[in-house]
Structure of Phospholipase D-like domain-containing protein:
Amino acid sequence: MLKGLAWQPQQHFELISEAVDFYPRMLTDIAAAREVILLELYLIESGLVTQAWVEALSAASQRGVQVYLLIDGFGARRFAPEERAQLKTAGVMIQEFNPLNWRQLSQNLVRNHRKLLLIDHQIAYVGGFGLADMWITPETAWLEVALRIQGSCVTQWAQTFRQSWPSRPLAAALCPHPPIHWPAAALASDNEGRVVTGWGLYRHTIKLSLLRQIYQAQEQIWIATPYFAPSRRLRRALIQAAQAGVSVHLLLPGPKTDHPAIRFAGQRFYPELLKAGVRILELEPRFLHAKVSLCDQWISIGSCNFDYWGLRWNLEANQEARCAALAQQVEAWFQQAALDSCWIDTQLWQQRPWWIKIQERFWGWIGALVQRWH
């Protein structure tokens, strides 16, 4: 039995593609908040996007909403001190997870990579988003999705936030007392959902749950991840599924990536995956940053990448769902992304330039060292 929060019935899910769509929805919900706002982010950089959010959070705090912001010591290193001061002056409670410590370098590997916006214990947004201008840059905006959630899974996300918050105790507003009156959209739904988390190599419910769903899939598997450096166990599961006749697709970044080394390290696994019948697509016009998995009608969306950090050191959290309507939306999103992707051909891949093969071997060797060192 996997250790994780229990499945909850009657959840309402809404998939929102593109930051230019979900940022405004989030800000609208923040403007309507009356009690509490919880915001947990890894990447936050000062710019046009962050400036708008600082103003919105400050305004919420000043009208009496309890606002809690949890940022990561590494991911928020480009978050201007002036904007932090503005939030604190407005009454926003800010905590920094694992501030960088140059005396204990290994400790710096542990990062809080979770992404969550929770409003009044009624609405939650999760995904791979942060606050930075690269999500809205015209024509090259990072490809991202956000999942808007209503139902009792919102309470599970509040519990996850409390576990991440570095100091104790927290205000009573962070511990809602039942009953919570969920909106009709949630109560009319028969969809199920639960929150799964990961922290460290042996406490990773996200990974274990994905593996189980891959082994149980009957028709199709789609996985999108910006950083693909999978474990042997995950590769074996994908290969076995493809050989059993399941349609397996991997949507991965193309040349436009913020970490080329991880892309090269992951490409060394292409030949064995392609040979087994796994279809690999690389998004070409812009960077893929979404973390989405679909196995038949099971969906997982959240913060977790399939790389060394996501599976070994980071605090991660995903929303899982069993929902036919959401599965259709997610599949349509994958199909749309496929139109802008290069399908990797086995024969052409074998003829790739020698300098690419060298980089694959070099960064693959580095990756293997990282795994052994841990």
